[in-house]
């Protein structure tokens, strides 16, 4: 390639390229001035409120974490206390059930003993009543037998019959009685 023929557009492209590498001083100064002015304005009006908000947020998070730790510790303590109460309640329930079983067994034995005593008393009273009734029946039977014997003897004497007649009469009267 030769240097003799250079198109017009190429010369413009070549001159634009060095401008990017060699910036204009006024643009650099204006850019720095704008940056510094914006930084001062932001520092004055935004930086302190932003830092304060961040500090407040950090404090809030720190307190929240502390509160969460306290709440967790309290929850663990409450959980332990609840478990202790549950264990005590279960123990009391077992004791109550055990005492109830023991009392029930004792009451059952007392009731059985009392029922046995009452049954024995009733049995003795019944035996005594039976003996009395048997004695009364024997007495009544003796009295009746004596009365029958007296009646028979009276009738025998009244009729004054012979021995054969007396036998027939005794059989007849015995059959009637």
Explain this structure to me?
The protein is 92% helix and 0% strand. It has 3 helices and no strands. The protein is rod-shaped and about 190 Å long. The chain has one domain (47-176). It has helices spanning 8-21, 25-159, 163-176. The chain is mainly α.
Integer-rounded radius of gyration:
67 Å
Parts with pLDDT < 50 across at least 5 consecutive residues: none
The string of secondary-structure elements, in order, is HHH
- What average pLDDT do the residues reach? 83
What structural class is derived from the secondary structure elements? mainly alpha
As a percent range, the share of strand residues is under 5%
Structural shape: rod-shaped
Compute the number of strand runs. Answer: 0
Portion in helices? over 70%
Count up the helices: 3
Largest sheet: none
Number of discrete domains: 1
Q: How far is the first residue's CA from the last residue's CA?
A: 178 Å
Question: Which helices and strands, and how do they pair?
Answer:
Elements: H1 8-21, H2 25-159, H3 163-176
């Amino acid at each position: 390639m030769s240097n003799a023929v250079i198109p017009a557009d190429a010369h413009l492209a070549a001159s634009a390229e060095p401008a990017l590498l060699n910036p204009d001083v006024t643009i650099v100064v204006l850019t720095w001035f704008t940056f510094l002015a914006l930084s001062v304005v932001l520092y004055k009006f935004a930086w302190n409120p932003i830092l304060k908000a961040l500090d407040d947020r950090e404090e809030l998070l720190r307190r929240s974490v502390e509160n969460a730790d306290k709440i967790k510790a309290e929850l663990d303590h409450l959980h332990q206390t609840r478990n202790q109460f549950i264990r005590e309640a279960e123990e009391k329930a077992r004791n109550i059930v055990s005492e109830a079983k023991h009392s029930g067994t004792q009451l059952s034995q007392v009731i059985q003993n009392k029922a046995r005593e009452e049954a024995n008393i009733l049995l003795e009273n019944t035996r005594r009543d039976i003996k009395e009734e048997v004695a009364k029946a024997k007495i009544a039977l003796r009295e009746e037998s004596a009365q029958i014997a007296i009646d028979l003897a009276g009738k025998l004497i009244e009729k004054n019959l012979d021995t054969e007649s007396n036998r027939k009469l005794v059989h007849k009267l015995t059959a009637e009685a």
